[in-house]
Write a structure and sequence with these properties.
The protein is mainly alpha-helical and 123 residues long. Helices cover 57% and strands 7% of the residues. It is built from five helices and two strands, in the order αααββαα. Strands 1-2 form a two-stranded antiparallel ribbon.
Length: 123
């Protein structure tokens, strides 16, 4: 699939629309990891920057979530009947930022622990 030059929408919007439709129509389960930036760029015949911008659009909408160093994942969708509203409500940008911060702190702690155990692994 390629983006259409004659389409009045920007490339990032065309890609975001295509991925949104794919996520909705498949439907991809929550937590499903999307293809890498490089793979998506090859698929749509654009740069990774353009794909990244399209994924940011979807992340801002709450369709997907970005996990640093892991990739992009399909976000939980609200239920159709309204049951379990709190559990399936879209995550706010503040909540996502807090989770990212926690992940970064945990990654730093893991890295520190790995440094401490490296000399032990040689014995």
């Amino acid at each position: 699939m390629t983006v259409e030059a004659h389409d009045p929408r920007s490339k990032k919007v065309q890609i975001a629309d295509a991925l949104r439709d794919e996520i909705a129509s498949t439907p991809l389960p929550a937590g499903h990891r999307l293809a890498s930036l490089r793979d998506l760029a090859d698929r749509f015949k654009v740069t990774t920057v353009t794909v990244g911008n399209a994924l940011k659009v979807l992340a801002d909408e709450g369709v997907i979530i970005s996990v640093p160093t892991r990739g992009y994942f399909v976000q939980d969708r609200p239920s159709e009947d309204g049951a379990g509203q709190d559990a399936s409500a879209p995550v706010s940008r503040d909540e996502i930022n807090a989770i990212h911060s926690e992940i970064q702190q945990l990654a730093a702690r893991v890295a520190e622990l790995e440094k401490r155990t490296q000399p032990l692994s040689g014995t």
